[in-house]
Amino acid sequence: MVDDIRAATNQAPPLLDYNVVSADVALVEAVTRHASTDTVEQVAEIGAAAGSAEAREHGLLANRHEPRLTPYDRYGNRIDEVEFHPSWHWLLGRAVGHGLAATPWTQDDPHAHVRRAAGFMAWSHTEPGHGCPVSMTYAAVPALRTDDALAKEWTPKLASTSYEPGLRPVADKAGALAGMGMTEKQGGSDVRANVTTATATASDGEYTLDGHKWFTSAPMNDVFLVLAQATDGVTCFLVPRVLADGTRNRIDVVRLKDKLGNRSNASSELELRGTWAQRLGDEGRGIRTIIEMVAATRLDCVLGSTSLMRRALAEASWHVAHRSAFGGLLSEKPLMQNVIADLAVESEAATALAVRLAAAVDADNDPHETALRRIALPLAKYWICKRTPAMVAEALECLGGNGYVEESGMPLLFRESPLNSIWEGSGNVNALDVLRALSREPEALNAWIVEVGKASGGDPRLDRAIQHVLESLADASTLEVGARRLAGRMAACLQGALLVQHAPAPVSDAFCATRLGTEYGGTFGTLPAGDLQSIVERTTPQ
Ligand SMILES: Cc1cc2nc3c(=O)[nH]c(=O)nc-3n(C[C@H](O)[C@H](O)[C@H](O)COP(=O)(O)OP(=O)(O)OC[C@H]3O[C@@H](n4cnc5c(N)ncnc54)[C@H](O)[C@@H]3O)c2cc1C
User: Fold this and answer.
1) Rounded to an integer, what distance in angstroms lies between the CA atom of residue 409 and that of residue 412?
2) How many angstroms separate the CA atoms of 67 and 53, rounded?
3) Taking Cα atoms as reference points, which of 330, 332, 350, 390 lies closest to residue 532?
4) Best residue for ligand 1 mutational test, from 217, 298, 423, 435 (most atoms within 8 Å of Cβ)
5) Between β-strands 251-256 and 267-280, what pairing exists: parallel, antiparallel or unpaired?
6) Which residues contact 483 (CB under 8 A, 6 or more apart)?
7) β-bridge partners, 279
8) Which of 51, 171, 175, 529 minimizes the number of CB atoms within 10 Å of its CB?
């Protein structure tokens, strides 16, 4: 009798030691489409590592043992160091080693960015927090190109696959990581209101900065791109953590943020006093310069949210395939099939658009791809990041009470889920950026029209939705108040066009009915009846 009580029956086994890439059919198909089967094989190596029990354990530990600020050493010297659990270093070291930081910018591989994007999505299954320094390092390179000398000095270090933690001059390191300092107390979206000042020194291009930064993540990184007010206006600066002579640059870490999620990562408040900086780009052109970094991090927000969705869906579909209630497996109950299928459609749509965007980075010399990126990036950042919290919450519920318990890993995903929508331009800011692209860059709208037009005639609901978008653009007076609605519709049309062309009919049909047609039921699990079982089978890890 006692033995019966102790037995844990009808519990799903842990979803461990599986390949998160091979199990993700939508990702494999997208990478094959936009790159090659060789790329899939390379990414699958990362997928096997990301699904291992060892990696998952490090993910949990890095979040359980949070980073700690050590402002002073034992003698009272100011050191401003952040101490991380060894698991943080384990995860970050492997992410860099897999070439997920700035490596693709220096690779002679036509699919380097698709490879990296898929690898980043796969590796983020381990835990999402350490993706922050990885993303910022990836994103710094396009902005650094503004200055040949600085690009030459820093790009090889940022593109390195060597992870070398610790505060040392960059010349002494095989690899380096980058961060960004834009947000200040009085405002983050409106960076023109920055109050940090930059004073030119006697040396050409060198300045000292005075002021503060309200959010600067990963303060142990080696270099930061920082905005400050110079004589001619907001200017971008390169700020190394350690100076060439080995002394530490004056960057006071005031405190670490006590955040909802993303707890493995350190996000700090900084004070800058006479901090040494090198100008990156012209004075007054700071936003123009750093926008290159922002654009690349926006792609990573899309990738990060897509990864969160897929991880949550994998856990949900796995659980219901192993848990029974009312005399049968949950995965065989029609209503649960509807929920899983609906989540799968969302995840597949996000995956298709995310990989399509990464392919546009690979094809940067093609004007259509550049114009498409200009509009599709804020569209995807707005839409995919905004869909994620609701999607992850629903996936969590598929595990019932077990999903609400920390050990399941689902609370970590849920706490992380709103973040990608906040940083690098919150929801409204990205929706308004879509309007800016539409009004100032006609080639961006043309690129969207060409892209969605590739699926023309494939589904009448998609054709009608595209028509509605184009008609709604005619009324300029309602554009700003309706920016979210427009951005959501345009993003869903892009996703619909990709699914109509490339996904199995049950997936694209369910998407078009509920995201583009009139059958949206207000929550997940409200797809019209159809071949939901095939969608569930496609998405469930075997
Ligand atoms: C965990 C974490 C880490 C971060 N790390 C960094 C970092 O490393 N470096 C860095 O520079 N920043 C970082 N940030 C800051 C982040 O980028 C900002 O919080 C974000 O850009 C929003 O700025 P804000 O907080 O000042 O909000 P605000 O700019 O005050 O915006 C508040 C709200 O108003 C909306 N809004 C703004 N303008 C308009 C408008 N014109 N019309 C309608 N609505 C509008 C926004 O969408 C938002 O919802 C981090 C934030 C978090 C949470």
Assistant:
1) 6
2) 23
3) 332
4) 423
5) antiparallel
6) 428, 431, 432, 434, 435
7) 237
8) 529
- Smallest CA separation from ligand 1 atom 49, residue: 426
DSSP for 377-391, written as a single string = HHHHHHHHHHHHHHH
Q: Retrieve residue 17's tokens.
A: 């030691």
| Index of the ligand 1 atom closest to the CA of residue 265 | 1
**Amino acid letter for position 192:** R
For residue 454, which amino acid is it?
A: K
Reduce the DSSP state of residue 364 to 3 states and report it.
Answer: coil
Pocket of ligand 1 (CB under 6 A): 179-183, 187-190, 215-217, 259, 262, 267, 419, 422-423, 426-429, 432
Residue minimizing CA distance to atom 26 of ligand 1: 188
pLDDT digits (tens, 9 = 90+) for 37-76: 999 999 999 999 999 999 999 999 999 999 999 999 999 9
Q: Are strands 223-230 and 178-181 parallel, antiparallel or unpaired?
A: parallel
Q: Residue 183 C-alpha to ligand 1 middle, in angstroms?
A: 7
Interatomic CA distance for residues 371 and 360, integer angstroms: 9
**What are the angstrom distances between the C-alpha of 395 and each of 186, 343, 344, 405, 413?**
37, 7, 10, 13, 10
